[in-house]
Amino acid sequence: MVFGLARRDLRPRVPLRPGEGQKHHLTSLEGLAALSLDALSSVAYGPESIVLALVAAGTGALTATFPVTLAIVFLLAVLVVSYGQVIAVHPDGGGAYAVAKKDLGPTAGLLAAASLVVDYVLTVAVSLTAGADALASAFPALARDKLLVCLIGLALLTAVNLRGVAESARVLMLPTVLFIVAILGIVAVGLLRAHPAATVGKDLSFPPHESLGVLLLLKAFSSGCSALTGVEAIANAVPTFRAPRVERAQRTELMLGALLGMMLVGLALLIRRDHVAPRGDVTVLAQLTAGAYGTGWPYYATNLVVMLVLGLAANTSFGGLPVLMSLLARDNRLPHLFGLRAERPVYRYGVLTLALLAALLLAATGADTHRLIPLFAIGVFIGFTLSQLGLVLHWAREKPDRWRHRALINGTGALLTTLAGVILLTTKFLAGAWVVVLAVPLLMLLFSRVERYYTAVGEELGLGRIPGPPDRRTASLVIVPLGEVSKLARHAVSAALSLGDEVVVVAVHADPARQQALREAWDRWNPGVRLDLIDSPHRSLVQPIVDYVQRAAEGGRQIAVLIPEVEPRHRRYEILQNQRGLLLATVLRARTDVVVCMLPYRLGV
């Protein structure tokens, strides 16, 4: 104590930036809200995919929904345990691309990256179409405009992400809780009722055209595996959790698995008990909602909550794909512009690319959820399999305690996800899975060609090597294209005199009278700079100047071309200015090796 004052720590305290500090990281519940919507919302289309596959054998085959769902939940349990291992081994984020690149080699990294790109694009498309289905179930008049609804939703998501509005776990907590309560409420209330409270949708007939055999059960299983999408998201984002990060992330993964498993099993029980078959203009989930809650306000509220959560699930791709593309750009596997961020922390080129690809996919499929799902799950299972295989090799190399037990868990996961992926590919190939089979290798080829280009450029530029001494300074010439004597000419000549040893102004005119007028005005002004007039009988402006510059550069002299450009104060007036300067600069850069400079002259109007 000195003069009655307590001792203070004199070390400077640096304020934390947004996102730093423990309070800005996620708890387990916040992580469930922020990272699990993609997986939890899959109950809106996963069980329906099983039903649509089984109904090929008639409505009596729908009793097989429950055992097929149990097989899917078993696979879910294996994945949850396996991803718990991924979280422990890769606490810096266990994304399939990072794991495959590190543990399986560059080719596997390319495969993981390509499958993730496909997965992210399809996540947006499937979530939006499933959300549109939920909205149309509540408001059938919108069923005809599903594509328009999806494109409007995509435009809103794109605009929000271009603005850089970050997701907040606290904001996502409310819709997540409402969704979980609504779905578990459907299961609980539906099972308590002796029969459905109400029936919605139009009757459809399903004459059996296929027997309920192993092949049909495998089709139903592969279709229902779309409910497992998003299980890996928590392992991808371990650094976003509060300390202890690994334990919190593993706890969140277990919570996700338990909730998703309960939802899937509960909905399957209702489908089997009430013989829920597809009906016109409504989803299977909407039928179960009406059966539990009736057709009053809870029915409409539940469908709106489902639509909202599916929209938020689509938004997760806008956070994931641009970051993945930035990593690929950093690894020289995509153009470097995908690694550029705007003033806000947003990879805008990645956001726009995702929006464009999703829009094309929606338009090509007519916003049909069931045409998209076969494409959707294949990319997911490629990522699942690569993550598990990478971990098996990690255990084999490191050999920690009980490494064989851990490798067995991940090896089982890899075997099951490979089996599910092969089943999905073979049973859904003609239904659209061939698109993914074509897209993934093409993306891998794109990544490898871009990487090869950057490698060749690096060799030619000598990146990483000390270059020789610079060339000795040579006399320079600055060429200024002008058309009239004005303040613009004064601005350009003044700038040119400060840049080079010699300045020449070049003017191109087709009219001899205008040439003479310009010569007289130039002599009266007398700026001390030579004026060269070029005759152009064909009224061409660009080519005569390009020829002049090429002749001036023949002796190896350092040439700079300074092109003055008028910039109006308001952008709406830009169209009123001619763009010959930009055209000339483009041609000069394409045909010569001279330095091309644009000199703005900003107007006050």
UniProtKB/TrEMBL annotation:
GO molecular function: transmembrane transporter activity
Name this protein carries in UniProt: Amino acid permease
Protein's cellular compartments: Membrane
Segments traversing the membrane: 50-83, 110-135, 147-166, 172-192, 254-271, 306-328, 349-367, 373-395, 407-425, 431-447
Species per Swiss-Prot/TrEMBL record: Streptomyces broussonetiae
Keyword set includes Glycosyltransferase: no
Source organism phylogeny: Bacteria, Bacillati, Actinomycetota, Actinomycetes, Kitasatosporales
Gene3D superfamilies: Amino acid/polyamine transporter I
Topology term for the membrane: Multi-pass membrane protein
Key words of the record: Membrane, Transmembrane, Transmembrane helix
Pfam families, sorted: AA_permease_2
Main subcellular localisation: membrane
Cellular component, GO annotation: membrane
Keyword Transcription regulation in record: no
